[in-house]
């Protein structure tokens, strides 16, 4: 997914721009926050520490997703970030989430966001494949 994202730099449908997470993927944030729920040392605020991001991005999905948002750059702009500046200005949602007291709270919020931004959107879910293992049940 990230290769497609950094190769083509297409504007995703329904983008929230600066007010969203990563327009192309939310699951690494959702699963990554679940992965960190019982972690004793890494807190939501740790995303502001470059050493924590660098050391943990290979092991923890959430840290990898944040590091990607901070490092990705479109063609012709050289290395750096798509959004230049402090996380509070370039990705206010990520910055606000980092102020939560626990990964449990972060994960609960990610689940709500996934339900609202993905599962509740017909333009997205109409492309979701269903079958015997995951049947589609039409609402009454």
Task: Output the keywords.
140 residues; Four Helix Bundle (Hemerythrin (Met), subunit A); mainly alpha
Radius of gyration: 16 Å
Q: Count the strands?
A: 0
Number of domains: 1
Calculate the mean pLDDT score and round it: 81
Please sum up the structure shown.
Helix content is 46%, strand content 0%.
Description:
Its EC number is 5.2.1.8. It is found in: Cytoplasm. Belongs to the PTPA-type PPIase family. The protein has 140 residues and is mainly α. It has a single domain, classed as Up-down Bundle (Four Helix Bundle (Hemerythrin (Met), subunit A)), CATH 1.20.120.1150. It contains 8 helices and no strands. The chain has helices at residues 2-8, 27-35, 50-56, 61-71, 87-90, 92-97, 103-119, 122-125. It starts with a helix and ends in a 15-residue tail after the last helix.
Fold blueprint:
Blueprint: H1 2-8, H2 27-35, H3 50-56, H4 61-71, H5 87-90, H6 92-97, H7 103-119, H8 122-125
Helix pairs in contact: 2-4, 2-7, 3-4
């Amino acid at each position: 997914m990230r290769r497609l994202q950094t190769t083509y730099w297409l504007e995703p449908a329904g983008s929230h721009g600066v007010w969203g997470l990563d327009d192309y993927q939310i699951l690494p944030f959702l699963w990554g926050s679940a992965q960190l729920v019982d972690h004793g040392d890494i807190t939501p605020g740790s995303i502001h520490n470059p050493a924590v991001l660098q050391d943990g991005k290979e092991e923890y999905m959430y840290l990898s997703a944040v590091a990607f948002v901070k490092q990705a750059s479109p063609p012709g702009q050289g290395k750096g970030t798509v959004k230049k500046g402090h996380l509070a200005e370039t990705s206010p949602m990520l910055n606000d989430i980092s102020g939560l007291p626990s990964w449990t709270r972060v994960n609960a919020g990610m689940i709500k966001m996934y339900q609202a931004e993905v599962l509740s959107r017909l333009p997205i879910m109409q492309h979701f494949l269903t079958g015997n293992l995951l049947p589609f049940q039409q609402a009454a």
